[in-house]
Design brief:
heterodimer, A: mainly alpha, B: about 290 residues, mainly alpha, 10 helices, globular
Chain lengths: ~100, ~290
């Protein structure tokens, strides 16, 4: 096992443990927005879509880049916008400073 | 490590930190919106840093740039339009749709990785196999879940004779294809079997579950996508994908359990019930 792979694996395991703890106190009303927010976070797959362009050099590669980028961008942009719309419902009443 | 690499890695570290803080701020209604905005800003920074990596590498073919730009523009536009236009009541199925495309993107990264080596060794690494497997299950499963909530697919549990046998066959096909690929004995055919069986399994997993349980199922599939993205991160050797994917995989799993508890449902009953082990009758909660 290479040093890099071991470092990646360590980061993976520690991130899992962090993920188990980070949302422990979420109230029931925030379950759906939190699901949507977490959904937006895995939109980081868009960075992966960017990285595969480095090795795309034929028609199949370009087609995969196109579809992957479209899917991932839809995940990111839609995910954050729809989460924000859900959370708008939790803002304080009008007139109060936000 | 060159100065350029160092800067990119520091940006990635900041991005991962902000994702964690953003999710943590979602614990309270007062800070939740700020948390989402922080997370979005981190996402923009992470994608921008990756774009800088591409420009810096200067080896991206013009057609690859064009495909990337066109795909990103199309996807962003569609996502923005859907997220803005959809009714409040239709949001869960929209989240499921976004989750489906996220899982699909992760699976396609695995497909791309496989196509690079297809003429050489006939095998695939564990991250690539898991990436395609989990990503494809999430893609089809989330589409069925969204369809059920939207009313495109019947929302009642879809059960038919032989459904369990079909699921068993799909599981065996996925396991067999994975073993062939991991031991270096599989080729394009084994890879295709893996992808198709995983797509089928996503459908056969979600179809028998009733519409009322869909939010829990969507949350579970969301955690699956996170895991698939982390696997894509291993395949690409990219730390921020690993961190963010693992974070969503774990927090999504906890959230799934919290949601099931809040609905007075047992997670195993929902999933096992989906496989026809006798969960057709409503569970009697303490409050009736």
């Amino acid at each position: 096992m290479s040093v890099q792979l071991f470092a990646d694996l360590s980061v993976f395991v520690l991130s899992l443990l962090l993920g188990f703890e980070v949302i422990g106190r979420v109230p029931t009303t925030l379950h759906t927005p939190l699901m949507s927010a977490a959904n937006a976070v895995h939109g980081i797959v868009l960075a992966g879509a960017l990285l595969i362009t480095l090795s795309a050099d034929d028609a199949l590669g370009y087609a995969l880049v196109f579809v992957t980028a479209a899917f991932a961008a839809m995940n990111v942009v839609g995910g954050y916008v729809v989460t924000d719309r859900m959370l708008e419902m939790f803002r304080p009443p009008r007139g109060e400073p936000r | 490590m060159s100065a350029f690499d160092l800067v990119i890695r520091l940006v990635y570290l900041a991005v991962a930190t902000c994702f964690v803080l953003g999710l943590h701020l979602m614990n309270s209604p007062v800070t939740a919106r700020r948390g989402n905005l922080l997370s979005a800003a981190a996402m923009a920074a992470g994608v921008a840093a990756t774009a800088v990596v591409l420009v810096h590498a200067a080896t991206v073919r013009p057609w690859a740039w064009a495909a990337l730009a066109a795909g990103a523009a199309l996807g962003s536009g569609a996502g923005l339009l859907l997220a803005r236009r959809v009714r409040m009541t239709a949001m869960p199925q929209l989240v499921s749709l976004f989750n489906a495309v996220g899982g699909g993107a992760a699976a396609l990264i695995g497909v791309h990785d496989f196509t690079l080596h297809v003429s050489g060794t006939h095998g695939a690494s564990l991250p690539v196999v898991l990436d395609v497997l989990i990503g494809a299950v999430t893609f089809s499963g989330s589409l069925v879940a969204a369809g059920k909530l939207q009313g495109v697919v019947p929302s009642h549990p879809i059960l038919f004779p032989g459904a369990r046998a079909l699921t068993a066959v799909l599981v065996l096909a996925m396991a067999g294809a994975s073993i062939l690929l991991l031991t270096g004995n599989g080729g394009l055919a084994a890879f295709a079997v893996l992808a198709v069986a995983a797509l089928g399994f996503g459908v056969s997993m979600v179809a028998p579950i009733g519409g009322a349980d869909m939010p829990v199922v969507i949350s579970l599939l969301n955690a699956f996508t996170g895991t698939a993205v982390a696997m894509a991160g291993f395949a690409l050797g990219n730390g921020v994908l690993i961190t963010a994917g693992a974070l969503v995989g774990a927090s999504g799993t906890i959230l799934t359990k919290l949601m099931a508890d809040a609905m007075n449902r047992s997670l195993t009953a929902i999933i096992a019930g989906g496989f026809g082990t006798g969960d057709d009758k409503p569970i009697e909660g303490p409050a009736g």
